[in-house]
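Weekly modeling sync, notes
Attendees: S.R. (lead), two postdocs, one rotation student

Agenda item 3: backlog of single-chain predictions. S.R. asked that every request posted to the team notebook include the full sequence so nobody has to chase files. The rotation student volunteered to paste the first one in as an example of the format we agreed on. Action items at the bottom.

Example entry:
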Amino acid sequence: MSLEIIGSIKEFLAVESGIAKTSGNEWQKQNFIVSNNDGYEGKEQLFCFEVFGAENVENLAKYNKVGDNVKVSFNIGTNEWQGKYFTSLKSWRVEKIQDEGVQEHPTETHTATVVNDSEPDDPLPF
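Predicted structure, as returned to the notebook:
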């Protein structure tokens, strides 16, 4: 399942790193906060996304900065450890978008009207 959120980058958290117990390989991850105003009554919502891998962490900092308007594509993942469950939003794409892509408070609603020209004005067959 893949999901998307549109908002602005509010903060980058510290890079975390370590060594995997099973493989002995080094790992890196970084969390970042995206906010938007899609909450109840236009209130700010915060989302904490995770990028995993040294190259992804490097690219996150290289191509994005606080205040950028972005569309984040992500998956939701949950891990179990000693009977406790930890859920994370694992981003796999962060795209910059134009300023008009983030709506602070939507003011207009557009309704489309479909006209079917193939039906006659008078539906009676005689």
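Discussion: group reviewed the output briefly. The helical segments are 54-63.
Action items: rotation student to repeat for the remaining queue; S.R. to check formatting next week.
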